């Protein structure tokens, strides 16, 4: 039986070690690729959640179909609705958001208004009797004509710090639809300053 | 002398309890078969606790309906609830007054299938109410704020021909939170069972 010369045997052993190292590197690469692809793959939630269009108070948030500018916030236990009596009282608080809305392409309504608190609780826009006739959710926005008015949500005022206003055109079947998302920027020590005896609602009107 | 004919020389059959199959008695085979059947049924949930009887709850007791806490307060018949609800000519309305508290973290309007009247003449057991309204300011299908109770009345029509009931039986629906599935990440509460039944005296406010 013939034996390999020492130099050739060494070369074979070195080649084997290199091949093993390459295998280990390739396995690691494949694992990294699998985990990376898994993380990059959109989940069902990613393709069903509305698409957030972020903004700040005082500046217009430009979604493809409407622009929303939040001008201010007031808080009260009582709400006076124009052309409706009596003064409405809340078991929590009325959060009244002064805003300007402009449709950009065609006439539309804003059908979904929510405030999401820092703890994840979602408070839906109020629908007290007489409110829809005068607030911005009942108003039809004409293209390029800004309308000034109010959005009202009933929620405890102490949930306002860290809360985010979310406004959408569609209330249902709104997967991936743009959602104006504006942190209200209310700090705990500002709550007393925002509180009114009776919140006055501005009837929606083209300005 | 002739031998007697008949079965006299036939071997006598063993008693049933003495019969053995493959060395085991029939009783042992029977018990083994029963054990196997029980084990198979257990795999498919055969040993699960049987459904409990629907609890009977008196008016004024809080009922856990999953998404909401429901307290039946009273049942009244009225001539009408203008401007929201009007009966047919000569008929009346029957209203179940509840206190509803959303225990979930998302504000909703009262589900229309929450309350059903059972065995009331002129109303089918499956009939949905005309709608719901707050007692405070007659808001139809009001938005409920999580963790804040609201007095809400569910209203049905009573036809002219029927005499007004003096006591009604009603059921309160329970809702189950459906976890996100691979194909759907929308949060859902689905009706699953009857949370409670209640018999309530009817106050006649038609006169």
Describe the structure.
The complex is a heterodimer of chains A (207) and B (207). Chain A is α+β, with helices and mostly antiparallel strands. Chain A folds into two domains: 1-41; 50-206, Immunoglobulin-like (Sandwich). Chain A contains two helices and eleven strands, in the order αβββββββββαββ. Chain A has helices at 6-40, 191-194; strands at residues 51-54, 61-62, 66-80, 88-103, 112-116, 122-124, 147-154, 164-168, 178-183, 198-200, 205-206. In chain A, strand 3 and strand 4 (88-103) form a beta hairpin. The radius of gyration of chain A is 29 Å and the shape is elongated. Chain A starts with 5 loop residues before the first helix and ends with a strand. The mean pLDDT of chain A is 93. With 207 residues, chain B is mainly β. Chain B contains one helix and ten strands, in the order ββαββββββββ. Chain B has one helix spanning 26-43; strands at 20-21, 24-25, 62-64, 68-78, 92-102, 115-118, 131-134, 150-158, 167-178, 188-204. In chain B, the strands form two sheets. In chain B, strands 3, 4, 5, 6, 7, 8, 9 and 10 form an eight-stranded mixed sheet that branches. Chain B has a two-stranded antiparallel sheet with strand order 1-2. Residues 1-6 of chain B have low confidence and may be disordered. The chains are: A alpha+beta (207), B mainly beta (207). The A-B interface holds A 43-45, 48-49, 86, 88-89, 91-92, 114, 119-129, 154-156 and B 105-109, 136-143, 145-146, 148-150, 180-186.
């Amino acid at each position: 039986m013939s034996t390999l010369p020492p130099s050739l045997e060494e070369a074979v052993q070195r080649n084997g070690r290199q091949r093993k190292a390459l295998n280990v590197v390739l396995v690691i690469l494949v694992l990294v690729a699998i985990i990376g692809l898994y993380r990059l793959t959109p989940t069902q939630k990613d393709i069903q959640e509305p698409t957030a269009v972020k903004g700040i108070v005082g500046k217009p948030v430009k979604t493809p179909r409407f622009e929303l500018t939040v001008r201010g916030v007031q808080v009260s236990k009582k709400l006076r609705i124009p052309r409706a009596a009596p003064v409405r009282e809340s078991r929590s608080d009325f959060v009244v958001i002064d805003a300007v809305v402009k449709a950009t392409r065609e006439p539309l309504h804003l059908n979904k208004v929510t405030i999401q608190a820092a703890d994840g609780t979602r408070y839906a826009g109020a629908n007290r009797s007489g409110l829809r006739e005068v607030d911005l959710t009942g108003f039809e926005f004409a293209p390029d004509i800004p309308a000034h008015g109010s959005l009202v949500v009933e929620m405890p005022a102490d949930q306002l710090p860290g809360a985010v206003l979310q406004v959408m055109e569609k209330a249902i079947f709104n997967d991936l639809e743009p959602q104006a998302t504006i942190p209200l920027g209310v700090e705990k020590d500002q709550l007393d300053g925002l509180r009114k005896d009776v919140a006055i609602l501005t009837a929606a009107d083209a300005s | 002398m002739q031998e007697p004919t008949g079965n006299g020389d036939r071997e006598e059959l063993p008693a049933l309890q003495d019969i053995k199959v493959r060395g085991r008695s029939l009783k042992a085979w029977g018990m083994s078969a029963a054990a196997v059947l029980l084990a198979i049924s257990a795999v498919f949930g055969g040993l699960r606790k049987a459904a409990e009887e629907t609890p009977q709850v008196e008016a004024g007791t809080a009922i856990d309906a999953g998404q909401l806490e429901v307290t039946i307060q009273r049942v009244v018949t009225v001539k009408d609830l203008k401007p929201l609800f009007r009966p047919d000519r000569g008929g009346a309305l029957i209203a179940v007054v509840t206190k509803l508290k959303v225990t979930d973290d998302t504000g909703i309007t009262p589900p229309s299938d929450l309350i059903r009247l059972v065995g009331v003449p002129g109303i089918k057991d499956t009939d949905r109410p005309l709608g719901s309204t707050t007692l405070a300011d007659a808001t139809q299908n009001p938005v409920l704020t999580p963790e804040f109770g609201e007095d809400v009345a569910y209203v049905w029509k009573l036809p002219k021909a029927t005499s007004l009931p003096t006591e009604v039986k009603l059921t309160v629906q329970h809702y189950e939170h459906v976890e996100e599935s691979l194909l759907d990440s929308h949060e859902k509460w689905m009706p699953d069972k009857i949370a409670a039944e209640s018999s309530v005296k009817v106050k006649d406010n038609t006169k």
